[in-house]
Amino acid sequence: MSLSSPVRFVKGVGEARERAFLRLGVRTVEDLLFFFPRRYEDRRNITSLSTLVAGQMASVVAEVLAFDRRTSHRGLEISIALLGDGKDMARAVWFNVPKLGDALTPGVRVALYGRVEAREGLQLTNPEFEVLDESDPQSVGRIVPIYPATAGLPSKWVRRIVSTVLDTCLSEVQDFTPSTIRQKYKFSDLRQAVAELHHPQKHESWLRARNRLAFNELFLLQTGLLLRKKRRTSSRACTGPLKPGEKYAAFLKALPFRLTRAQTRAIGEVVADMRSEVPMNRLLQGDVGSGKTAVALAALVVAVDGEAQAAFMAPTEILAQQHFLRLQNLLAGLDVQVELLTGALSRKERGRVLAAIASGEAGIVVGTHALFGGKVVFKRLGLAVVDEQHRFGVLQKNALLAKTDSPHVLVMTATPIPRTLTLSIYGDLDVSLLDELPAGRQPVKTHRVGNSPQQMARLLNFIQEEARRGHQAYWVCPLIEESEKLDLSSALSRREELAKALPGLRVALISGQLPTGEKESVMAAFAGGETNLLVATSVIEVGVDVPNATVMVIEDAAHFGIAQLHQLRGRVGRGEGESHCVLLSGKTTPEGEARLSAMLSSSDGFKIAELDLRQRGPGEICGVRQHGVTDFRVADLVRDHKILELARREAAHLIDRDPELKSEPLLAQALASRLGAALELAGTA
Ligand code: ADP
Ligand code: MG
């Protein structure tokens, strides 16, 4: 048995349990060694039941004095164990858990973990528990690791398996972190750290061990990202150096506003990138409404000035359409052919656009996912701009980039990404930041409104008033996860109701489900001010830009994620008028309340993103779950920012000294096997 053997090779692991392990991401013996407890229980002594505090989580060891089971009048099956520690008593109560009585016979000792509640005395409600086997040294008389559980993997059994593997295979674990770094920071031995995490001695040594392991994870990723960057910067852009020319000058002149300082700076960075030999790979970050589109357009025009083709990819048809119209306006009179490619084109039109792309006539192509379809062949694609890039999967982006060798790439995101995440996910990109909103914007006022008829009447009244002042409003319907069709039908009926309740106002409906032509005309009517109120499913979340809209109502707001709410709010406050965001919600879950109060307390996208990261974890926030690069076993992107910065510094030093990792074969091998696919580093080792 070696570290790379499948877990199946471990004695006692059969097919079913191997499958259960796979669900937890444990494939090999090595994975098992790095499969760490999620918490620990101190079972060295019986816990005094008198220390229980209502409202807290508690871990106790006690004796079962009696067990009883009954069915409540509402049909709930209730199991009750009376627990004793020789002095005090408490109860443990489970709802609808069958067959507990088989295990919880009077006289056995059990370890329990759960929430303490005050109900006719203190009780543990639905605790996890384990019957203690006095002859099993793994389970009693010590601090016991509790592993992430899943159906089909009893925790006691996992403990035994891990313990066996620790005994037999720990000595094979090798540390890929270079010895110079280990010495410099006086890192403890990796094997010791692994052992400590399974069986901690005390808190300080546990913490040192976990930081040590977090460093390794972050260091590996940073090395991979910086290597990828190194590789790019030593390649040559397919366009050759580009020089802004006539079209660029004309574009700047045609812009209907003065660029903010931040926009000027970002455009400068982009243009400098494109003037160099090295392909640009830049992330443009900026809060909603900060004016990212202008920066994107500048890049597109520089590309066509240099006779290259440029692609501008947007996540929705509505947004692609909007970008397309704006570009056509700005470039009118210039000799640039702009085309729109979405899945909704007629066959004939699609054929025409594809031909224009292939012949090179089309200078700029704006589109949706349709852009990376197999039939799309560019003559000389030199730049790809990806708007709202977190909406696209990595694979989709790569499919577009694969259409040519070493193009310039600009990705944009309106979800401000906390720095730790930027470094981990986009660590090989250069970053431009729009940290300023165009002048004259007033912050959007955010309100929480309940569902009572009085409150609703006041809200409708307010929309009427705003309409009288010539302003427009959005009304976003609840998110129905299972089905866009359901989303549409609920939005349809909401539109009816609102039209009735708001006589005299023109109320329209937009949804991703509508046929393309209809979507276009609805959006055009709203943008043109013909519609007063636009009822929408969450399709308007990204990008839509109608400066005259001043009210955003979000129904059932607690069900949206924070970043989504912030995006939606960003649809208003784009013009001169004072704008309002109304979060409709009754009482909701604690998580929902947290999201709403975050929205009420801050309009700073970065603060909100930090909160979001805390609440949901990195995978969700950026749609990067498929990366597989942030699935750390130990590292935590919220807490470990110091370790991350350190890991990045050391990785940069190393790659400067030894860009081929010749002196670090273990590191090269770990990179190839663990991150190779995710970072496309195959061949690096
Ligand atoms: P986002 O960063 O959310 O993509 P947009 O590029 O859609 O923002 O810009 C938001 C709005 O601000 C648009 O109406 C745009 O025309 C306007 N805008 C952008 N830059 C400026 C500026 N420098 N001055 C005034 N308005 C601007
Ligand atoms: Mg935008």
Outline the structure in words.
- There is one protein chain.
- This protein is of the alpha/beta class and 685 residues long.
- It has 4 domains: 1-38 and 147-173; 43-142, OB fold (Dihydrolipoamide Acetyltransferase, E2P); 246-434, 3-Layer(aba) Sandwich (Rossmann fold); 445-602, Rossmann fold.
- 39% of the residues lie in helices and 18% in strands.
- Strands 10-11-9-12-13-8-14 form a 7-stranded parallel beta sheet, sandwiched between helices. A 6-stranded parallel beta sheet has the order 15-20-19-16-18-17, with helices on both faces.
- Helix 17 links the parallel strand 19 and strand 20 (580-584).
- The chain is globular and about 90 Å long.
- The two termini are 25 Å apart.
- Adenosine-5'-diphosphate is lined by residues 257-260, 263, 286, 288-294, 414, 438, 545, 547, 574.
Considering the chains and any ligands shown, give keywords for the structure.
alpha/beta; OB fold (Dihydrolipoamide Acetyltransferase, E2P); Rossmann fold; 39% helix; disordered C terminus; binds adenosine-5'-diphosphate; binds magnesium ion
Break the fold down into its secondary structure elements and pairings.
Layout (H helix, E strand, L loop, with lengths): L14 H9 L5 H5 L5 E4 L14 E15 L5 E8 L4 E7 L13 E10 L3 E10 L11 E4 L8 H15 L9 H6 L5 H9 L4 H31 L12 H9 L6 H15 L5 E6 L5 H14 L3 E5 L3 H14 L7 E4 L5 H13 L4 E4 L13 E6 L7 H8 L6 E6 L5 H7 L4 E5 L10 E5 L3 H16 L3 E5 L7 H18 L5 E4 L5 H12 L5 E4 L12 E6 L7 H8 L10 E5 L5 H12 L3 H12 L1 H5 L18 H17 L7 H15 L6
Parallel strand pairs: 4-6, 8-13, 8-14, 9-11, 9-12, 10-11, 12-13, 15-20, 16-18, 16-19, 17-18, 19-20
Antiparallel strand pairs: 1-7, 2-3, 2-5, 3-4, 5-6
